[in-house]
Amino acid sequence: xxxSATSLSAEALPTVSLxxxxxxxxxxxxxxxxxxGDFTLSSGQHSDYYxxxxxxxxxxxxxxMVGRLMLARLPQETVGVGGLTLxxxxxxTAVSIAGAYSHRPITPLIVRKAAKEHGTQANIEGPSLPxxxxxxxLEDVVTTGQSAMQAVERLRAxxxxxxxxxxxxxxxxGGAQHYAQAGLPFExxxxxxxxxxxxxxxxx
Length: 204
Hints:
Layout: H1 18-32, E1 34-40, E2 46-51, H2 54-57, H3 60-73, E3 80-84, H4 89-101, E4 107-111, E5 124-125, E6 134-142, H5 146-157, E7 161-170, H6 175-181, E8 186-191, H7 192-202
C-alpha cells in the first residue's frame, strides 16, 4: 500500500521513519508536481512531462519531508547547504530547520543569479562561514546540471568547499554525467523513473 502525504498527520511528520516519509513524499510529488503533456524546459529542451518542484518544496508537509530526507543524506561533516535562487531557496531553508530540530546545525546559503546592486552587493545571502567550510549544493529538479554548477562556482569563489550536489529529482538527462565530469558527487532522492512508475500506479 502506498501512502499519500496527507495520510501522515502533522504530528507524525517529524518522527515517522524515513522510509515511510520517502514513500509519502513520492506520492505528493506525483499528486501536485508531476504533469504530462507538451512542455519547454528552462534548458530549451522539449519534454512530454514537467516537474514543478516548488509545488512540493513550498507545500507545508512537503517542505518538512524534503528537509528531513535531505538532511539525512548530507555527509556528516557538512556545515552548510546552498543553492541558486529561486528553486533552492525553500530547500536550504527546510534542511536548516530540520537540522535545528535534530540538533545538527546546518547554515542555509542562497546564491543570487546576479549580485545585488546596492548595500553589500553580495552574491550569497546567509550567515558567513569560515573559509573552506564544507557545503552541499541543493537543487529541486536536475536536467542538464547547469543551474547547480552556477551555485558551485559562486560558493567556491566565496571560499567554501563544495563537497557534492543533492537534488530532489533527477530527470536523468545528463546532469549526473555533468557533475561526474566536474568531480562532484551527486545524489537525488528520486529519479524521473521513480516518478513515472508511482504516477502510473496512482492513476490505474
